[in-house]
């Protein structure tokens, strides 16, 4: 009996048993869920990456290999896995490109963290070491980068085509890359040379033709036809353009009311009043010399009626109706005019001027083009064509990525090699640095360095090469001092990637590493999930 009592733990205030099993289980579940998401997009990394076909609930089909789009369309329920979806969104808004890379790096870091945790290293120690390693990584990348001038058109086009080469529309990169560079450079404001607002570049999609027919338009394009009612004009030279936000139609009562008309004379009076009301408006419009009207879509009542279109056609005024509310800001900025909210405010100084406004037939539809705009704002329009809706949507997404790449280069003017070269160099330098560090930190930094090898490994794997042989050869080349040696997927061998024109902005790589590390640190720190009903 005495032996039994001695075996029981003494309950002192300093000793208490804590069950860590649940915390470990939750951490492991989080890491495994996030890694599953990373593995889903891993095959679409690089120029030889596979494409994903996404079928949405409403029967829509999307074909893409853009990491942000794939993850956005995924219905992820696990909270930690959702963090990876948000991670790719942050990379998309920070750099625009590298959305797949950032998720793949995060997945590799989490895999390394599992090993470190199972070795008994505390999550806080791992988290702090990862933070130190990511700061060091950014320094190493910055030291590798090559400075760039915006006048160096060639290098800008190279980096845009590198971004496009991993997309479905890669065969059109020779056309889309210069187009992306020209459109971004045309909207750069000399007063704020480091800032580019991509909302100043409007992408208009029009079905028909091929991606080859995509063009840059110095002016405005409306994906709708001019109003043909009553034989109105469809071409106008020396145009004076008004953007109006009011309706050219007879007024309605504010609330649902019915007016009872008892005889024909009253009926005639109503119609006569309506005609006079509309005529009065059109006379005021014509008095300013305006000959093109862009009418905003109205939800209250018809923006124009058949009667008003008839009178506008007689007054030789060209009409484009149903202009979307969100396009008004872009249109007024381009035309350098002011939107007019009331007929009483219709004045000459609020009009925009252009040499030509005409309706053009494209494929099976028509568009309205405005060219030769006087005092045009710093905006540009890209008209994207495609043989079917899938190609059209993917061309738009790819073009957006290319525009973002050029925007990165405008804000941070440094280029870096692609093809897995920076990751291997980082891995080598951080590996060497980890030997200098003491204790657990060294282990964690070494794991971080190993995790970065996932990018060249995946690039080689997706290109059908032997990943182990390729990564080993890469390490060897970098150890000999060839810091720009990378995987040339076209030739299936290792070459100097800068000479092959495979370049990317520094900002894409640095933001991928800092964002991935930040996300992994956050997942590591979570030790419990509390569901609140």
From TrEMBL:
Q: Which InterPro entries match?
A: Chap_CCT_delta, Chaperone_TCP-1, Chaperonin_TCP-1_CS, Cpn60/GroEL/TCP-1, GroEL-like_apical_dom_sf, GROEL-like_equatorial_sf, TCP-1-like_intermed_sf, TCP-1_chaperonin
Top-rank lineage group of the source organism: Eukaryota
Q: For the region Disordered, what residue ranges are annotated?
A: 1-21
Gene3D superfamilies, sorted: GroEL, GroEL-like equatorial domain, TCP-1-like chaperonin intermediate domain
Its annotated compartments are: Cytoplasm
- Has UniProt tagged this entry with the keyword Coiled coil? no
* Sorted UniProt keywords: ATP-binding, Chaperone, Cytoplasm, Nucleotide-binding
**Primary localisation category:** cytoplasm
Give residue spans, biased composition: Basic and acidic residues: 12-21
Q: Name one GO molecular function term.
A: ATP binding
Q: Which GO terms describe its cellular component?
A: cytoplasm
What's this chain's function? Molecular chaperone; assists the folding of proteins upon ATP hydrolysis. Known to play a role, in vitro, in the folding of actin and tubulin.
Assigned protein family: Belongs to the TCP-1 chaperonin family.
NCBIfam families assigned to the protein according to its UniProt record, in alphabetical order: chap_CCT_delta (TIGR02342), thermosome_alpha (NF041082), thermosome_beta (NF041083)
Task: Write down what this protein is called.
Answer: T-complex protein 1 subunit delta
């Amino acid at each position: 009996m005495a032996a039994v009592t001695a075996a029981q733990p003494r309950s002192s205030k300093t000793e208490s048993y804590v069950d860590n099993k649940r915390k470990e289980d939750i951490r492991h579940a989080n890491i495994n869920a996030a890694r599953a998401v990373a593995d889903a997009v891993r095959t679409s990394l690089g120029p030889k990456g596979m494409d994903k076909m996404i079928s949405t609930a409403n029967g829509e089909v999307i074909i893409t290999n853009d990491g942000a789009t794939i993850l956005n369309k995924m219905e992820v329920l696990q909270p930690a896995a959702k963090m990876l979806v948000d991670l790719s969104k942050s990379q998309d808004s920070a750099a625009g490109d590298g959305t797949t890379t950032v998720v793949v790096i995060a997945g590799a870091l989490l895999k390394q963290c599992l090993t470190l945790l199972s070795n008994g290293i505390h999550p806080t120690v791992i988290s702090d070491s990862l933070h130190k390693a990511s700061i060091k990584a950014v320094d190493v990348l910055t030291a590798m980068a090559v400075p760039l001038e915006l006048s160096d058109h060639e290098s800008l086009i190279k980096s845009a085509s590198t971004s496009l080469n991993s997309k479905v529309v890669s065969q059109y990169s020779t056309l889309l890359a210069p187009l992306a560079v020209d459109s971004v450079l045309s909207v750069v404001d000399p007063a704020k040379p480091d800032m580019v607002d991509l909302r100043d570049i409007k992408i208009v999609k029009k079905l028909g033709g091929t991606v080859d027919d995509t063009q840059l338009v110095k002016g405005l394009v409306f994906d709708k036809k001019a109003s043909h009612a009553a034989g109105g004009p469809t071409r106008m030279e020396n145009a004076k353009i008004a953007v109006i936000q009011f309706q050219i139609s007879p007024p309605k009562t504010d609330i649902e009311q019915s007016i009872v008309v008892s005889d024909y004379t009253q009926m005639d009076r109503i119609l006569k009043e309506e005609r006079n009301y509309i005529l009065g408006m059109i006379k005021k419009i014509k008095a300013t010399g305006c000959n093109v009207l862009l009418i905003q879509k109205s939800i209250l009542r018809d923006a124009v009626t058949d009667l008003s279109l008839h009178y506008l056609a007689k007054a030789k005024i060209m009409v484009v109706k149903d202009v979307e509310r969100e396009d008004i800001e872009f249109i007024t900025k381009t035309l350098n005019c002011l939107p007019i909210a009331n007929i009483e405010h219709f004045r000459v100084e609020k009009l925009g001027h252009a040499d030509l406004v005409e309706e053009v037939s494209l494929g099976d539809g028509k568009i309205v083009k405005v060219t030769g705009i006087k005092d045009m704002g710093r905006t540009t329009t890209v008209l994207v064509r495609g043989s079917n809706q899938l190609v059209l949507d993917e061309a738009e997404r790819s073009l957006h990525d290319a525009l973002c790449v050029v925007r990165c280069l405008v804000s941070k003017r440094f280029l870096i090699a692609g093809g897995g070269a920076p990751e291997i160099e980082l891995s080598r330098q951080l590996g060497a640095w980890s030997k200098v560090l003491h204790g657990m930190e060294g282990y964690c930094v070494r794991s971080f360095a190993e995790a970065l090898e996932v990018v060249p490994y995946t690039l080689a794997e997706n290109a059908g090469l032997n990943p182990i042989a390729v990564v080993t050869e890469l390490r060897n080349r970098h150890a000999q001092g060839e810091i720009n040696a990378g995987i040339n997927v076209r030739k299936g061998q290792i070459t100097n990637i800068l000479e092959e024109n495979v370049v990317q902005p520094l900002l894409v790589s640095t933001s991928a590493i800092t964002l991935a590390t930040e996300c992994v640190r956050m997942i590591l720190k979570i030790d419990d999930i509390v569901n609140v009903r």
